[in-house]
Amino acid sequence: MLNVSFQRALDRYIGGPLCIGYSFFHGAMPPKDSIKEILVVRLWTLGETILTLPMIKKLRQEFPRAKITVLARNRNKNIFKYVDFVDEVLLFEKENFSTLLKMRGHYDLAIDTEPYLRVSGLLSRFLAKGQIGFDHGARGRIYSEKVHYYDMKHAAKVFCDLLEPLGIKYTPEKLVSLNVSDADKTRVAAKLMGLTKKPLNETKLIGMHVSTAESAEYRAWPKANFAELSDMLLAKYDNAFVLLTGTEAENKANNAVIKLCKNQDRIINLAGLLGFPEFISLFSYLDLYISNDTGPMHLSAAQGAKTIGLFGPNLPLRFGPYPVDNKTNFAIYHGDKLPCSPCINVHLGKFRKCSCIKAGTAECMTLITPEEVCNLAESIL
Prior knowledge:
Blueprint: H1 4-22, E1 37-41, H2 46-62, E2 67-72, E3 88-91, H3 97-101, E4 107-112, H4 118-127, E5 128-134, E6 145-147, H5 155-161, H6 182-196, E7 204-209, H7 223-236, E8 240-244, H8 251-260, E9 267-269, H9 276-282, E10 288-292, H10 295-302, E11 307-311, H11 316-319, E12 329-333, E13 344-345, E14 350-351, E15 357-358, E16 361-362, H12 363-366, H13 370-380
Parallel strand pairs: 1-2, 1-4, 2-3, 4-5, 5-6, 7-8, 7-10, 8-9, 10-11, 11-12
Antiparallel strand pairs: 13-14, 15-16
Helix pairs in contact: 1-4, 2-5, 2-10, 6-9, 7-8, 7-13
């Protein structure tokens, strides 16, 4: 797979001129009552994929007889397997390009949920008769209907704004939970009891996600802080276990945290031990989940687990665990104490390399102390 920076460069320098060329050929929005085939374009990130689900679910409610297809990538396709309002997932991968080339104008309407990618706009324009997308940049010229991206409200609400050209005004109360089987939940419960050597009703299970996506690794809280926080919580609760989540690729980062801990007996590295449905099921058993600003944090919020998100380069106003209500979902952010935050502006495709690195991460992340997170965790637990 091409690295993220190279994919973005291709999108910018090739996709931009193509969008300008395509802008001379506008597609008209079809009448609402004639829409039978809808394509939702969602090509990037686990977290934002989860944040689009309330919009897609509302779309299903408004168009109960339409076929809803999602255009996705391999890295986010699995999300759509665990909802019941998506009829088909179509992949934007090279092995499927020949199929896509035969589908010009196949859909009545495409809704492009990508906030900045040019290729998503081009795909929407090619595959559908009418299109809805965000209005900024060169790609904003090619949609039938354009929606303004309000960058000072939560992305879950912004995605729902894409329904307004269809006469639908909607603000979700919460995220959409993913459906897993009882067998998946039972399997996870058995694994947890095997790892902790205790019945689950006699434990406090505190999940932590110490890694971030490769698009902006500087938004990670220092590993030493996660280790110190783990020691604090384990000292306060004799029946607590800290579960470090992640994929096989994140195993090394989790082990680095464990090596820094004084109390390693009740810290469990789950990286690579759970399949995706098992990972979804895990949140049913957690008393609390503490995470960097990354996809698993949004999954935790979607599954109804109590969640603390740690922020610095990005704003919790935009991407906090939704809804950030200080009841179930919480966010800690001190980036406003520095002039450079936020340095991530997803809607503009700007992931500026942090110029204020401290302790191996963005300085704004180091302003969050283990004591502060521990106190908040204690008030929740």
